[in-house]
Amino acid sequence: MHNWSDVECIQLLKNCRNSIPAKIGKIIIVDIILHYGGDSVFEDTRVAHDLLMLSSVGSGKERTEVEWKKILKEAGFYR
């Protein structure tokens, strides 16, 4: 999902949502969630991973927790 726009990610997740069983289905996303502020012990890792995605996929992007929540909500995943 790193090199896809929000619109493309939402469509992919909608397709997943439509394919899993209602109420008991799950989707598991393993990813780094960006947290800005610079005071985290993982700040160097965050910066390095963001740069890696940008350089390896050209239009790569990491997302913050707020961005992920918005995408998941628009795709029909509610908590």
From TrEMBL:
It holds the Pfam family Methyltransf_2. GO terms for biological process: methylation. It comes from the Eukaryota. SUPFAM superfamilies: S-adenosyl-L-methionine-dependent methyltransferases. Keywords: Methyltransferase, S-adenosyl-L-methionine, Transferase. Gene3D superfamilies: Vaccinia Virus protein VP39. The keyword DNA repair does not apply. Residues 1-77 form the O-methyltransferase C-terminal domain. InterPro entries: COMT-like, COMT_C, SAM-dependent_MTases_sf. One of its GO terms (molecular function) is O-methyltransferase activity. This is O-methyltransferase C-terminal domain-containing protein.
